[in-house]
Amino acid sequence: MTARAREAGCRSRGVGTRFVCAGTAGAVAAGLLTSFGVMAIGLALAAIVSAAGSAAGEAERPGDQPASPLVVYTVSYPLQYFAERIGGPAVRAVFPAPPKVDPAFWAPTSASILAYQRADLIVLNGARYARWTERATLPLARLVDTSAGFRERYLVREDTVEHTHGPTGAHTHGDLAFTTWLDPALAREQARAIRDALTTPRPQHDAAFDAGLASLEHDLDALDREFRRITQSAPSRLLLASHPVYQYLARAYGLRLESVHFEPDEEPSEEAWKELRALVERHAAQWMLWEDTPLEATRARLAELGIESLVFDPCARVPAEGDYLTVMQRNAASLARAYE
Amino acid sequence: MRHALFLAWCYLRFHRVKTVILIAAVTLVLYVPIGLRVLVSQSARALTARADATPLVIGTRGSPLELVLDTLYFGANEPAPMRFAEVTRVASSGLAEAIPIYTRFRAGSHPIVGTSLDYFGFRRIEVAAGRQLATLGECVLGANVAATTGLGPGDYVVSSPESVFDLAGAYPLRMAVVGVLARSASPDDDVIFADLKTAWVMAGMGHGHQDLTAPQAANLILERTERTVTANATVVEYNEITAENAASFHFHGDLAAYPVSAAIVVPPDQKASALLRGRYEADDETVLVVRPSTVMSSLLDTVLTVEQYVLAGAALVGVATLGIATLVFGLSLRLRRRERETLVRIGGSRARVATVMAAEIVGVLAVSALATAVLTMLTSAYGATMVRAWIRS
Q1: Cβ of B383 and A163 within 8 Å?
Q2: Is residue B39 part of a domain?
Q3: What's the domain range around A310?
Q4: Chain A: nearest CA to B123, how far in angstroms?
Q5: Cβ contact (<8 Å) for A10 and B298?
Q6: Per-residue model confidence as pLDDT tens digits over B72-130
Q7: Domain co-membership, B264 together with B135
Q8: Given B55, B233, B294, which is nearest A8 (Cβ)?
Q9: Same domain flag for A109 and A206
Q10: How many CA atoms lie within 13 Å of A139's alpha carbon, on the beta-carbon side?
Q11: What are the residue ranges of helices labelled H in B164-286?
Q12: Alpha-carbon gap, residue B9 to A323, rounded angstroms
């Protein structure tokens, strides 16, 4: 018996052949020696012929040429911004969601998904952000989950409903808070994950990526210090959020924040106002954070309740003006009003 | 000479039963060793090529041969499932890419292979018609599947239930065919490919159903609190994933615990391969890493050993057959003594009569040689297709 045969799980039996392999090999070899031995071996060997394989190897993808920029598709604008800052001219970062659509709930067309498939890297936020990625066919080897390094620090949403039916047990459909980038410390970790992912296919740009990351981290640190300075001036300040999207910001800076479900471009229902009044009775906040500028009527009615409005844009979409950093700086200035 | 051939032909035609038996016997004697050699050499080449093109395979500990056969050739004997966490473990090691393979389900006689998009790049398989997989619930057909079923983009394939008596088991999923793969002359031509997550939906680990928080589902609700909704078992679960219901599909529990049959592991170089294999050497390791080329070489060793025995047997049978054929010809010549004398009396020379007899023998041998050549060509051309079905049955 050869060493290779032993490795394949063969053992000696001495029944007609020199040895018979366990399992399938045994079946193959024994079959070959039956009364239909000749035909059996023909069939067995033809099976081998049927297994004629093609040569393997990596298929060429866009950006495989070292000189061409690495094509990176992202699922949110902050990730696109981070990739651009880190990668510089060596990277072409693309975030193809339409500008008016919330990327968290975007349902891309097949054509958009095929465009993602052609990318060199697909950068995900993780924390179940952009749920469409769970239902899309994407190349595992090119997926980068930027929050995989801090999964244990994910926040569970408290406003989801658990349901039970049939034998599958209780489960929920959207149980994690996902705006991780609103915590600059987590955003830094996501940026590092992007740097690591870029370095693998483009090691020759390692130094440039490090420099890009250092520059980005410097800005994120400054942002972190600014948020901390603002929020520590009145740590007991009570706040409201028009939507439950600020969980990571609240945790990072100890914000005492409660959320409702108001849309900036819709007038809340009377039931929603009733819930707000009930909430304010136990959480007497004077400021509400909005993702976008609310309707004037909503703002006025909030003012009647003694609640001022301020815009804190999570910046998941491409901003109309500026970039991620300038939006966050505007957010800091806006937040500062609540802490004056 | 022409007359001699004519007389020989008339004789063989008149004694057609004896002639056919002789031709069949001589053909088999010639074909068995030649056809066998053709198959063996082609098989060895093809087997080595596909195995060599697959650097490593990981799966749950068990028979390495079954693991490799299932992963490379999608055989009927699915190995014990492995946790998907093992796939991410390989990927997160930074030493290799891992391509999951999940072969639990079939559609009729065709295996459904749940995998990731990386598989097509790894095997260099292009889409010949339609497009590549994009979302849950879609499939692409191997070239032979499309040819034999007549299906193509725009059609549907329904996965087979595993057991009609398992009411709580996996239900059939109706998948949209979005593409047909280019022919690759490999087992990939004979299977249906779907996204791994689509295969998990078939397994019942992911599903889509009515929104239980919506007012329309009120008659399904057994209990509703602020944080929980309990529905009865009549909740409609979708057996097809469409653009309208796709958003309702979701997976339960930790994906890391979900099953795959095996994974193809693609390290960038030998060093990474050796390092990775070293990590799975521990005795308490539940996962097996094998090199398909090594496993297939051992199988070839076995097959080649068996082949030697078969060839030896075929040689003995051949000698016996040729002996019998010689006897048949000899006896035939003796029985035809009066026929030869008649030919001489009506003016044929003894040389001409000998030519007629020789033409009969040469004719039988020539037809046998021709039949052998045809059979060998057929073996080379269609043997693979026949046994491809056999190996998966």
Answers
A1: no
A2: yes
A3: 228-338
A4: 5
A5: yes
A6: 988 767 889 999 999 999 988 889 999 999 999 999 989 999 999 999 999 999 999 99
A7: yes
A8: B294
A9: yes
A10: 22
A11: 196-202, 270-278
A12: 94
